[in-house]
Amino acid sequence: MTPTAPTLQRLLFVMNPISGDIDKAELSDLIKEICTSRGTAAELYNTTGENDLEQLRDKVGSNAYDAVFAAGGDGTVNLVAQALVSSGVPLGILPLGSGNGLSKDLGIPQDAEQALHLVWEHQVKPLDTLEVGGHFSTHLADLGFNALIVERFSSGDTRGPGAYVRVALQEYMGYEPVHYRIVTDQETWEGEAFMLTIANARTFGSNVVINPDSRMDDGRFELCVIEPFPATAAPGILYRLYTNDFDDSEYTRRLRCRHASIEVPGQQQALVQIDGEPMHLPLPIHIAIKPQSLQVLAPPSAAE
Ligand SMILES: Nc1ncnc2c1ncn2[C@@H]1O[C@H](COP(=O)(O)OP(=O)(O)OP(=O)(O)O)[C@@H](O)[C@H]1O
């Protein structure tokens, strides 16, 4: 353990039985075995997909957990973070999904067994969280092209990066950019966008860096706009998204703010993906940051 890290003695592990393709019974046994051998009490909760948030809030309210781990994909991390927000109880992550965006941004090992060592070797970091149209987000939300692809993915049975690229290419051909009006506490921007990301974090689970050099604890968030671009510009934009150079394109801009509202003139609702879950939200969409409202366990050496 790092000198400043508190000892975690009582833990809850929230496990999503459908996340990833590893054997959850084996992982549960491993968690119990390692924790028992180190004198740490570990309780397990399997999500059902029904009323999990209410159940977890009850558990967190009536038990003195030192930390609660989300063992699952981005949806499970969002669920557990929501149950813990403003409680002071830190969130740990055992990444099991296909994206695992927040865990990557925090530098958490992508192997669940290695990530378990966060219990004994960690630093506790405060993170901002976002409210997007009344929904909780820890990581990244967006409107436009990527939200459409996430929706196509969640309604089909295709998975994996190869399938993502295939679906994205199919949809790109007929995609019509949308006209947005964004009003923040700093400025107003109006125009067409191919994609509009609401970013508390930096990097998608796909390793696309949509919001480079940003912080998750500064009380601000970014609206990252990719404006319509000719097909010839696509390779350059894609390259910049993988090389930390989002701003180096004439088709991109970022608005940094504390609160914002997004309108689509003439439309009543919009498709939005929030931490990987697609949903239709009424317009305008109001976004606000809750500064340092979530504690997380990160590796002792994590930079930010
Ligand atoms: N026991 C369960 N049976 C069916 N669905 C469940 C169950 N528990 C949770 N879910 C659903 O799982 C979804 C969240 O999955 P999560 O994102 O954690 O994993 P994943 O889909 O494998 O990850 P990724 O999105 O990174 O690929 C939620 O929609 C939730 O309702």
Automatic annotation (TrEMBL):
Specify whether Nucleotide-binding is a keyword of the entry: yes
> What is the scientific name of the source organism?
Solirubrum puertoriconensis
- A Pfam family the protein falls into: YegS_C
Report what the protein is called: DAGKc domain-containing protein
Looking at the record, the residues that make up the DAGKc domain are 6-135
- Organism placement in taxonomy: Bacteria, Pseudomonadati, Bacteroidota, Cytophagia, Cytophagales
Molecular function terms, GO-annotated: ATP binding; kinase activity
Annotated Gene Ontology cellular component terms: plasma membrane
Provide the alphabetized UniProt keywords: ATP-binding, Kinase, Nucleotide-binding, Transferase
Read off the SUPFAM superfamilies from this record.
Answer: NAD kinase/diacylglycerol kinase-like
